[in-house]
Amino acid sequence: MFSDLSHKVVVVTGGSKGLGSAIARRFGKENMKVVINYHTDAAGAQQTAEQVIAAGGQAITVQADVSTEDGIHTLCDMALQTFGDLDVWVNNAGMENQHATHQLTLAEWQRVINVNLTGVFLGTQTALNYFVKKNKAGNIINMSSVHEQIPWPTFAHYAASKGGIKLFTQTVAMEYAARHIRINAIGPGAINTPINAVKFADPQQLQTTIAMIPMQRIGDPDEVAAAAAWLASSESSYVTGVTLMVDGGMTLYPAFQGGNG
Ligand code: BGC
C-alpha cells in the first residue's frame, strides 16, 4: 500500500476488463477515486466499479472512445465534475489482432494505431494540460508491452503502436520533468487476461508461451497493477521515462538460457 495515493483522483482507460480492471481495483485498495473508462463493456466497467468501492475506493464508469478528442475530454470533465481534481492518468486501453503484414488493411492498421497510440497521445495531452494549468505535479502511466522491444511477426501494427508508446513516453518525460510531471510506461509480457484467453486455452500454445518466459509461468493482472500503483506513488519519485517490464524475464533473451548461443 502507498499511503500518498489515498483520496487521489485517477482516470483508467479501458477499465472494464483485463489489466485496466486490475489496475482500477488496485487503486480502489489504495482508497483512490477512480474514473473507469469503457468503450463497449458497460457491465464489466460496472463490476469493476463495485469492486473498487468494496475495496475502499470511490468509482464512476464513463463510456468514451479514447481515440477521439471528445471521448478523452469527456473522461477528464467527468473526473473534475465528480471528484474535483485529477492526479493520475493511466492510458491503458488497447487492442490487438493478428494479420500477415502483406494482408493488413489500412483500415485495420489505423484502428489499432488510433486506439493504442493516438489514444495514449490524447490522454497524455489532456492530463498535461490540466497539470500545467494547475501548476501541479502529475503522474501519467502508459500501457506498453514487451513488444515495444521484441519484434512480433504478424502483429506489426500492434508492435508499431507499442514502439511508438516507448519513445513518446521518453520524449514527454524529458519535456515535462522540470514541471514535476512524471510519465512512465509498463511493459507486460504474457498475462492472464481476456486478450489472451483463447490462446492460453490451447495447451500447446500455452506451453509455447511459457517456454519463452524464464520464470516459466504466465503473469497475473495483479502483478501488473502493483507496478502501476508503485509508478503512481511517490515511492517512485525519481523515476520518469522508463518502461517497467513486468514479464517474468521475457525480454531477457530466453533463448540464451544455459549459455546457448
Ligand atoms: C500481448 C499478449 C502476448 C504478450 C507476449 C502482449 O503485449 O498483449 O497477447 O502474449 O505480449 O507476447
UniProtKB/TrEMBL annotation:
PANTHER family (alphabetical): OXIDOREDUCTASE, SHORT-CHAIN DEHYDROGENASE/REDUCTASE FAMILY (AFU_ORTHOLOGUE AFUA_5G02870), SHORT-CHAIN DEHYDROGENASE_REDUCTASE FAMILY PROTEIN
Any GO molecular function: glucose 1-dehydrogenase [NAD(P)+] activity
Keyword line: Oxidoreductase
Pfam families to which the protein is assigned, alphabetical: adh_short_C2 (PF13561)
The protein's Enzyme Commission number: 1.1.1.47
Protein name, entry field: Glucose-1-dehydrogenase
InterPro entries assigned: NAD(P)-bd_dom_sf (IPR036291), Sc_DH/Rdtase_CS (IPR020904), SDR_fam (IPR002347)
Protein family according to the UniProt entry: Belongs to the short-chain dehydrogenases/reductases (SDR) family.
Organism: Candidatus Paralactobacillus gallistercoris
Enzymatic class: oxidoreductase
Keyword Oxidoreductase in record: yes
Gene3D superfamilies xrefs: NAD(P)-binding Rossmann-like Domain
GO process annotations (BP): bile acid metabolic process
Segments forming a coiled coil: none
Record has Transport as a keyword: no
Domain of life: Bacteria
